[in-house]
Amino acid sequence: xxxxxxxxxxxxxxxxxxxSFFLDQAKALKRAGHQVSILYCDTYSxxxxxxxxxxxxxxxxxxxxxxxxxxxxxxxxxxxxxGHKEAFAKGIExxxxxxxxxxxxxxxxxxxxxxxxxxxRKLSEKTKIPYVVTEHATLFQLHKNEISVTNNAVIAxxxxxxxxxxxxxxxxxxxxxxYTSNIEVIGNVVDCEQFQVKETNKEAVRLLxxxxxxxxxxxxxxxxxxxxxxWAKVSAKYPQAKLIIGGGGKSLEKVVEWTREYQxxxxxxxxxxxxxxxxxxxxxxCDCFVLPSRxxxxxxxxxxxxxxxKPVIAVxxxxxxxxxxxxxxxxxxxxxxxxxxxxxxxMITAIEKKDATYQPERIAAYVEEKxxxxxxxxxxxxxxxxxx
Length: 388
Description:
Shape: globular
Number of domains: 2
Strand content: 15-25%
Strand order of the largest sheet: 3-4-2-1-5-6-7-8
Mean pLDDT: 92
CATH topology of the largest domain: Rossmann fold
CATH architecture of the largest domain: 3-Layer(aba) Sandwich
């Protein structure tokens, strides 16, 4: 099949891991023998004029045999979700006309309705090629009631005209019930050749967390405040254990400040911004991955850690509910600091005693079966075949 993917956001030279799950899914389809292209339009408002001027992205590039076509457009009204849908859609249409018009495309696959799905709908109306939408956005989890009547109508039309809507978790699918019932659940993909079990030598227990910390809202979403508070209660009991924090951004200093406030500075190690390979290495070196997010539509970092054979501590907030089980981790309830304290205590005890509960090979095999390139490609192929 010839598949065109339209992501709502995509990696840049400065942020190479942005939207990595979109690219990983494209790689899965490519490896399964399909022709895959990505169309993406960077939109910039007046507020982002410096980024517009310094724009350095390649208009045509290729990653692992996937053709990527990219452009930029100026959109004075980009702020929020109100402004840039038309600019983005027109940018995608221009890319299509320039690079894909003569191609025999079978499926258009958008990632996130706002506004990749809108661009796919407009393109589908023009080309008569069916489109599907995979929804990832926490917009529907956090701000559904804040969507304007106008935008809500547009979103509903995008979902209802799609040949299929895909959600990354069952709980998230329920949030879209008001829009459509034509929903399939397919999780995100993990590169199990990159994220894999590797024996490492270490003297102390290493608990790892990784997240973007550009804005304080991201710290709140990922529960970093809860994590530091819980770690302050647990760390004194385990002098050889350390919390490793990966990720950079303008709000990183806020987390550093919390470690000083709760007097755990010496029990926390900050790694700063990490490349994708560095994330792999840190996950292979850790004993457990922990991230007490308040909201997750899926939570790809958990299954990346699990692909490395590591148990996880996650929150039953919609996404992790589908894949965290007794043999691969611990699920706690949202906002429950004491539950996190207990989970950390239980996990560290199990690690120090070399408890057989969390077997690296079994944890990694589960991810291979459910979320590998092969597994996700097969699920997507079934969706496409049923449409065509």
